[in-house]
Amino acid sequence: MALSETIKAGPVAGKLDHIPGHLGMPIFGNTFEFLKYPFAFHESRRQQCGPVYKFSVFGGRTVALYGADALEYVLMDREKNFGSRDGWRLLQQLFPNGLMLRDFDDHRSHRRIMQVAFKPRPMQDYMLRLNDGIANTLPAWTPSPRFQFYPAIKKLTLDLGASVFLGLEMGDEAAKLNQAFVDEVAASVAVIRKPWPGTKMGRGVKARAFLLDFFRDLIPARRSGDADDMFSQFCRAKAEDGAFFSDDEIVDHLNFLLMAAHDTTTSALTTMIWALAQYPEWQDAVRDEVMALGTERLDYAAMDRLALTERVFKEALRFRPPVPFLPRFSRRPFEFGGYEIPGDTSISVSPGLVAMDEDIWTEPTRFDPDRFSDNRAEDRRHRFAWSPFGGGAHKCIGMHFAIMQVRAFVHQFLQHYRVALPDGYKPRWQAIPIPKPRDGLPVILTRL
User: Fold this and answer.
1) DSSP states along 294-309
2) Residue 15 confidence (pLDDT)
3) CA torsion, ordered 83, 391, 394, 320, to nearest 10 deg
4) Fold of 3-447
């Protein structure tokens, strides 16, 4: 088999000779440069070529559209031109039928059924599960001068996800489930796209099979029961015609949602805790707000009273969004930025790059939660200035759940712990597919 076949990831773009930019090396294109420094790669291309440019990664050619206007145009997709499924071609072997990889009427139909699990009543039940899980875990965190925060919060978010999503208490299976999600995510940016044994893609496809079998075995009991976890609600949810999700649809949705909720929330919370450790004045201010509520656990009705906590979290998401790049695939030709872009073309827009746009944000490289205050409101300078959860029809269905989980954790964590960074510490972050600290974020954890 030719080497080019091993990295071929999906549709090939139409004729792009008139689009500025270059496609890099034969076969591999710009893949290695992009993987090493994703943001620097795009920033240099934008400076050289302007807001519209072409590049090539993972065996496919792509046109990047830069800016908040580009985000609005592509994500709102008023002409129904930009498909998500073919855009996320790198995920098609791993999450082929997840909600993010469905389009238009099919996507809308599945999303409508799934929304039942995110209504206020279930969300209140989830809050109880979150509070219990956090309260049971935090006392076991041992104060240390080099506490590895990332693996600790990753385990906690998996346990919380298992409780809320699956109605399970994690035991011996936790390590296997966690590793399976790690392998799936790692496979999404594997250079070799064939699932050969020993490769990242091979491990990712094997992990997918393990997870789907694990979920499938639980379906009969969930479908016949009356539990209120998300899994059970999916098993009992009906479409307008009275049809249930099939077993295949249930396990595909769970595989994608649990991965997304687990890894993106882990990334966001890690960035937020790094920021609170790096800037102790913000940590003290958020702790004062938490203490002022006067409750050990966060009540669902009190979430809106954590205004400062919300600003700090928003700034953490701006500073390091869990999904910095969003791909789409054009079904028809369109015009943007003065260029005619052909149909059947991979398109990339970036909430992460817009979050550092000096035309929108004041000193964007500075961590400054006050930019989200009412008197500054820099996030309102453009509808898509701040869009870490995406936008349009594909806006993250679990956005409010993720925000609730972060608030619940921070509320309990800051009542019991203080966090700081070791002297001279310089973080090293992996930027894609989902940002995480390469060293596990060692922090100085002390009990209050």
Assistant:
1) --SS--GGGGGG-HHH
2) 86
3) 100
4) Cytochrome p450 (1.10.630)
User: Which tens digit of pLDDT belongs to each residue from 299-313?
Assistant: 999 999 999 999 999
Distances (CA, A) of 61 to 17, 58, 75, 131, 333: 12, 8, 20, 46, 16
d(CA 341, CA 143): 55
pLDDT score, position 324 = 95
Q: How far apart are CA 361 and CA 194, in angstroms?
A: 42
With a CB cutoff of 8 Å and minimum separation 6, the contacts of 187 are 93, 94, 200, 201, 203, 204, 205, 207
How far separated are the first and last CA of the chain, in Å rounded? 61
For 33-62, what is the mean pLDDT?
A: 95
In the predicted model, is pLDDT for residue 140 greater than 60? yes
Give the phi and the psi of residue 372 in degrees, each rounded to 5.
Answer: -95, 5
Residues 329, 346: Cα–Cα separation, whole Å: 5
**By the 8 A CB rule, do 58 and 9 touch?**
yes
Location of structure tokens 């701006």: 318
Average of per-residue pLDDT across 103-126: 91
Quickly count: other Cβ atoms within 10 Å of residue 368's Cβ. 20
Any residues with CB less than 8 A from the CB of 75 and at least 6 apart, and which?
A: 82, 326, 349, 384, 387, 390, 391, 392, 394, 395
Residue 419 to residue 82: CA distance in whole angstroms: 43
d(CA 183, CA 94) in angstroms, rounded, equals 10
Of the pLDDT bands very low, low, confident and very high (cuts 50, 70, 90), residue 14 is low
Where is average pLDDT lowest: 258-267, 321-330, 407-416? 258-267
Q: In terms of Cα–Cα distance, which of 22, 68, 19 is closest to 41? A: 22
Which helix (H) or strand (E) is 239 found in, with range? none
Q: Summarize pLDDT for 99-109 with one digit per residue, the tens.
A: 999 999 999 99
pLDDT surpassing 60 at residue 148:
yes
What is each CA distance from 382 to 72, 221, 361, 372, in whole angstroms?
9, 47, 10, 13
Residues near 4 by Cβ (< 8 Å), separated by ≥ 6? 27, 59
